[in-house]
């Protein structure tokens, strides 16, 4: 069986990390190693994990690096053929990794992600829909919340200079390089907070959208041609912003 290494960046998450880790322990798929990267927490997160979760590989940053660099660093401590990601305030549903590994094997995928719910424990029993995602699709929408992703370990290379939407930047680069990417429309994770509008980096909606525009603009420059889906991205970002202002964003 293939080993999956899950990397969890941790920053002042002592209130949520136990639940996140428990969701990994509860996976139907058992060939999983866990790497937590403490990013200079001040609430004893590091000590808490060290004391209460002895089977977790625990890494401590000397300075605050942010999520992109922490994920890259965590991957260097992974031994699995595949790497997954989880944030310390999110959870996986028990069948997440089993469903995704089966689909990766079936379709020869390099990368797979899934849909999400927010603050629920509704674990689906079956997968409703699955589709292959390419660069054209990704230009209209970031399909992949980072905690939903499993990918081949050698593909992980987050841009550490990009503070916002660094995940989308990597997904676009992988799609440009013809990685085979799949998307499960059934929610397999629950996020502790919505993507936009709450505390944390993701609450910085404008900066996130500028990060997305910067990411796809780099792809445009590399391609050296007009890329029609860029217009789709701009429209999607505008709609997100209007919904956010109206309080209707989900």
Written overview of the protein:
By secondary structure, this protein is of the alpha/beta class. The longest helix has 19 residues, at 205-223. The chain has one domain: Spore Coat Polysaccharide Biosynthesis Protein SpsA, Chain A. It is built from 8 helices and 9 strands. Strands 1, 2, 3, 4, 5, 6, 7, 8 and 9 form a 9-stranded mixed β-sheet that branches. This is Glycosyl transferase 2 family protein.
Provide tags for this entry.
250 residues; Spore Coat Polysaccharide Biosynthesis Protein SpsA, Chain A; alpha/beta
Strand content: 15-25%
Could you say which structural class the secondary elements and strand pairing correspond to?
A: alpha/beta
Secondary-structure element order, N to C? EHEHEHEEHEEHEHEHH
Main sheet characteristics: 9 strands, mixed
CATH topology: Spore Coat Polysaccharide Biosynthesis Protein SpsA, Chain A
* Name of the CATH superfamily: Spore Coat Polysaccharide Biosynthesis Protein SpsA, Chain A
**Whole-number tally of structural domains:** 1
Give the count of helical stretches: 8
Terminal residue distance: 37 Å
Number of β-strand runs: 9
Q: Which regions have little confidence, pLDDT < 50, spanning 5+ residues?
A: 196-202
CATH class: Alpha Beta
Q: In the CATH hierarchy, what is the architecture at level 2? A: Alpha-Beta Complex
Task: Give a brief description.
This protein has 250 residues and is α/β, with parallel strands linked by helices. The protein is built from 8 helices and 9 strands.
Q: Topology, pairings included?
A:
Layout (H helix, E strand, L loop, with lengths): L3 E7 L6 H9 L6 E7 L6 H8 L4 E4 L5 H10 L6 E4 L5 E2 L3 H12 L3 E8 L11 E4 L1 H6 L9 E3 L13 H11 L4 E11 L13 H19 L5 H18 L4
Parallel strand pairs: 1-2, 1-4, 2-3, 6-9
Antiparallel strand pairs: 4-8, 5-9, 6-8, 7-9
Helix pairs in contact: 6-7, 7-8
């Amino acid at each position: 069986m293939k080993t999956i290494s899950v990397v969890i960046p941790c920053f002042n998450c002592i209130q949520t990390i136990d639940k996140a880790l428990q969701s990994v322990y509860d996976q139907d798929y058992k060939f999983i190693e866990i790497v937590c990267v403490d990013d200079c927490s001040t609430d004893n997160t590091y000590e808490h994990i060290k004391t209460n979760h002895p089977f977790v590989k625990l890494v401590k940053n000397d300075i605050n690096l942010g999520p992109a660099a922490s994920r890259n660093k965590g991957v260097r401590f992974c031994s699995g053929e595949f790497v997954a990601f989880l944030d310390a305030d999110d959870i996986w549903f028990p069948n997440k990794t089993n469903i995704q590994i089966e689909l990766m094997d079936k379709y020869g995928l390099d990368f797979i992600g899934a849909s999400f719910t927010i603050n629920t424990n509704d674990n689906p029993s079956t997968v409703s829909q699955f589709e292959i995602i390419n660069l054209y699709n990704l230009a209209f929408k970031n399909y992949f919340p980072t905690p939903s992703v499993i990918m081949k370990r050698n593909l992980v290379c987050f841009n550490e200079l990009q503070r916002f939407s660094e995940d989308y930047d990597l997904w676009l680069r992988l799609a440009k390089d013809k990685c085979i990417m799949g998307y499960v429309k059934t929610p397999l994770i629950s996020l502790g907070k919505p993507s936009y509008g709450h505390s944390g980096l993701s609450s910085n909606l404008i900066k996130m959208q500028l990060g997305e525009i910067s990411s796809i603009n780099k792809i445009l420059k590399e391609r050296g041609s007009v890329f029609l889906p860029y217009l789709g991205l701009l429209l999607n970002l505008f709609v997100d912003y209007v919904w956010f202002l109206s309080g209707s964003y989900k």
